[in-house]
Design brief:
single chain; 494 residues; mainly alpha
């Protein structure tokens, strides 16, 4: 690291300061004072210090510290990996991705230890910014270095990214081999309805059948197997989301509501902020409205006041529940609460939920004839429509604005970045849940799908399949059949 005589005097102290699992900022500051010159050791201290500052939500200081670390230790994987996390949550995901990619080349073993949550957020923000090429490259690189993830959706998405890359690079055989690794039916459908991937359609049909039931069953079994093996809330969330998407809301409630029995005030459990909204939404669908709100309130009470983004997920869930019920006054109050909390957290908050909540707010104001109040959130949603079209579409559907929704879909079909999203929308939607929100927006959505200009644009760039794919549980699959064992396996069980 250094042969500088002054650095060597504090090397032992510096090593102790950076080697802790949770580095102490005061100790790092004390060492930094003793390293006034631009040496590699100062660069390492600043890099570790940047991570500690970032953990305390001191974003501006963290960015300044990591930039110095990168300058003093160019091409070193440690500051690059720390920087990738900081830049992900401070508005520079492209730079974060490039630094992670560089570190994965020079030190793949260190890159494999990256926090999966951070990488998931990084890829999400790249896609939100319209940079799908970089997002796909990052996903593919994770698989290339053997990055291990316990989540089936991430494994499938990485395979999708590699397949899209292979097609773009005219490597047809490589792309055809990749089909077997794409387990999520939604990922396969991205390829199956887009003419850019027409050469893959016969292979996809071999794997998915005419209705995607075989691949849907395999994916459900994979998700269930992950949950049974791990028994944690993260794998439970993956499985619950899929079941909810397939309209198995009663099973979601029966399987996953009991996981919150042990949640206590001041004692949050890792991952509950992601699972609780899924379960609460399913409770709304099955008619347990008051219980759904009680679940979210229970989970919210488990977090301390400074829980940051974790409790913000629950704030967003309150908005979603009110939207499902078309309870416009509650949408307005819960959206205002979310946006105030998000503003206090600054750029560390993903842009996508901010736009989604502003869409809900503009919808609620519009439905209650408060058009002046709707103008600002609606403008922010529409300005983001090129890269986050879902929120803009939801607003148009809420307002019953068929013409605006049709124009949005046609425009997004013409854009290679959002084409897969638009092609998925124009497919048959499958059975509806019958919530007040779906009863309000469903007829407008159907009119948009049936519009001649939408159909023409979809057939120009892809195709509209004759029936919905994997929109309900495959025949014979029983979600309640297998659950995690309540006790550890007997040592002689295997």
């Amino acid at each position: 690291m250094t042969t500088d005589p002054d650095d060597l005097k504090v090397l032992e102290e510096a090593s102790a300061a950076v080697s802790s699992r949770s580095p102490d900022l005061a100790r790092l500051d004390a060492v930094l004072i003793k390293l006034p010159r631009p040496t590699p050791l100062r660069g390492m201290i600043q890099s570790v210090r940047a991570g500690a500052l970032h953990a305390q939500n001191r974003s501006a200081q963290a960015v300044a510290a990591i930039n110095e670390g990168l300058r003093l230790l160019p091409n070193h994987p440690v500051p690059q990996l720390i920087a990738s996390g900081i830049f992900t949550f401070t508005g520079a995901p492209q730079r974060g991705a490039d630094l992670w990619m560089q570190a994965s080349v020079t030190s793949p073993e260190l890159a494999r230890g990256t926090d999966p949550y951070m990488l998931d957020a990084l890829i999400g923000r790249l896609y939100e910014n319209g940079d799908r090429t970089r997002g796909d490259r990052l996903s593919a690189r994770m698989a290339e270095i053997g990055f291990s993830t316990a989540l089936a959706s991430a494994r499938s998405h990485a395979a999708l990214a590699r397949t899209r890359e292979a097609v773009q690079n005219q490597q047809l055989e490589e792309a055809l081999r990749g089909i077997a690794l794409i387990s999520n039916p939604a990922d396969l459908e991205v390829l199956f309805v887009d003419r850019r991937y027409e050469d893959l359609w016969p292979r996809i049909a071999e794997w998915g059948g005419t209705d995607f039931d075989p691949v849907s069953r395999r994916y459900l079994e994979e998700l269930r197997g992950d949950w049974v093996a791990a028994g944690d809330l993260n794998t439970a969330t993956e499985y619950a989301r899929r079941l909810s998407l397939l309209r198995a809301d009663a099973a979601v409630v029966e399987l996953f509501l009991p996981l919150f029995d042990e949640v206590r005030v001041g004692a949050p459990q890792d991952g509950m902020e992601f699972l609780a909204p899924v379960v609460a939404r399913s409770m709304i669908v099955v008619g347990r409205h008051e219980d759904a709100y009680r679940l979210l309130e229970k989970v919210a009470a488990a977090y301390p006041e400074d829980a940051g983004g974790n409790s913000l997920n629950i704030d967003a869930a309150f908005v979603s529940l009110a939207m499902e019920q078309a309870n416009w006054p509650e949408v307005i109050s819960s959206a205002d609460r979310f946006l105030r909390a998000a503003e206090a957290l600054g750029p560390s908050i993903n842009r996508s939920p901010l736009i989604a909540v502003r869409s809900a707010l503009a919808c609620a104001y519009s439905r209650t004839a408060q058009m002046e109040d709707a103008r600002l959130p609606a403008a922010e949603v529409l300005l983001a429509a090129n890269v986050m079209p879902g929120s803009a579409l939801n607003l148009h559907l809420c307002r019953g604005d068929t013409a605006a929704a049709q124009a949005l879909i046609v425009a997004r079909l013409e854009d290679v970045v959002t084409r897969d999203w638009a092609l998925r929308f124009v497919q048959a939607p499958g059975p509806r849940r019958g919530t007040p929100l779906e009863l309000l927006t469903g007829p407008t959505a159907d009119q948009v799908r049936a519009a001649p200009e939408v159909i023409a644009a979809a057939n120009k760039h892809g195709r509209i399949l004759p029936a919905a794919l994997a929109r309900s549980l495959p025949d014979g699959f029983d979600p309640l059949e297998i659950r995690p064992a309540p006790q550890p396996l007997d040592p002689n069980a295997i």
